[in-house]
Amino acid sequence: MTTSPRTGMVPVDDTALAFTDTGGPGRSVLYLNGSYASQRSWRPVIAELGTGWRHITYDERARGASKRSADYSFEACLRDVGAIVAASDVDRPLLVGWPYGAALAVHWAARNPDRVAGVVVVDGAMPWGLTGEANRERIRRIFGRMRFLLPLASPFGLAARMTAAQHAEVNIEINEICAALDPVLDRLTCPVSYVLATGANLGGGRGGDGGDAGHARSGASPQPAPAGQLQGAEQPHADPAQGLPGRRHRRA
User: Fold this and answer.
1) Is 14 part of a structural domain of the chain?
2) Closest to 81 (Cα-Cα) out of 62, 105, 45
């Protein structure tokens, strides 16, 4: 089915989400952003893939052109995915998610197995996260130190229009969700492809092969980037057209 390009706002709960649908006759791809990123992060990927795909992007609550909300929880973000799917009238899209969006993709696919064609996760959805009170305080301190920079980063899609404390709580929650991903991955019935790169995330320590990244890699295969670390600063560097293998990569 061929659809026409459109942009607009999708109402959900107490807010409204800015979305873009390129239309076209190709396979529908719904892109799910990093924690504090906006839909602009996907522009290089969309440009490279071209018009053979139907590209659907949106800004999460308090990101990009979307409105603020009283609820920035992971469950609220899952409701947002459903709202965008319904508003786009899309049949079984391919979900492409990047760190925070990767966790959203696998959770939404596990809960809606008949509504998803497959999942591509980019540097995320690894069953590991920074948990425990010491790490929660560490995350709060990091974002507290960045409280004056976050409003400046927001227009560039590098932060949300939230307080530093709200940024921190979003990150604390996604770390705990990532640490508990194993049962979610076990429930997936659609094809899943992992695209795993290198490098640090916003506030994520030393990056590279040191520190927490090395800790994450010691328990997973193939070599992952630290999915549960502080997220949102990098641009996605993956091509959804790589295809979907009929298996998923799991821990050794």
Assistant:
1) yes
2) 105
